[in-house]
Every structure is written in structure tokens, then in C-alpha cells.
Amino acid sequence: MSVIDPEHSRARAGSFVAALFDLSFASFITLKLIRFLYMLGMLLGVLAAIAAIVAAFSVNSGLGVVALFLSPLVFLLVLVGTRVSLELIAIVFRIEENTARSLLGG
Asked: Could you read off the pLDDT of 9-48 as tens digits, one per residue?
């Protein structure tokens, strides 16, 4: 059994929907989804920060002012954590691509 499956490279060129139904997992959709997941994380982070600010102001104005200053900082920290996590996932898939390319002699 060969380490490199010739169907592997052809499956990568397929569509997103075809990759979803690839039962052999020769085609990966993760790299196609990473941009969407990051934008979704950004959107949810912004909405959570706004909700925290609104909730804090509904309790009292002092807590609201604190939330007004801390929410952007927490948002940035969560955004950095999300970005690093997604980059680590992308790195694993890039390693696989480069390893496959090296084994093929390319």
C-alpha cells in the first residue's frame, strides 16, 4: 500500500460539497472553512462584547463603564486565541500537504 494515494490529489481539486461526502477522507474541508470560522468568531466576539456592555449598564452605570473599557480588551484576547488556534489547525494541514508533495518528489 502506497503512502501517497493518487486519488488524494484529484479529490482535493473537487468541490466543497463533494468533499463533504468523501467517505475516505482523502479531501479535507478544514482549510476551506477556516476563513469562515474566523469571521464567525469575530462576529460572535463583537456581539458578546456588546451584550456584556449592555448588560453591565443595565445593572448600574459604574459597572457599565468598567465593561466599556474591559470588553474590547477581552475581545482582542479572545480573537488572538481564536486566530492562534485556527492557525495551528492550518499548520497541521499544510504540513500534510508539504509532506505529500515531498514524498512525490515535487
From this structure: 444 556 878 888 888 877 778 888 999 999 999 999 999 9
Cell representation of residue 14: 473537487
The residue ranking higher by pLDDT, 55 or 99, is 55
Place of cell 495551528: 88
> Residues 19-43, buried b or exposed e (16+ Cβ, 10 A)?
beebeeebbbeeeeeeeeebeebee
pTM of the predicted model, to two decimals?
0.72
Distance (Å, rounded) from C-alpha 28 to C-alpha 13?
10
Task: Show me where the domains of the chain are located.
Answer: 32-104
Q: Are 57 and 64 in contact (CB under 8 A)?
A: yes
DSSP notation for 71-86: HHHHHHHHHHHHHHHH
Coil, strand, or helix at residue 70? helix
- The torsion angles phi and psi of 102, rounded to 5 degrees, stand at -65, -40
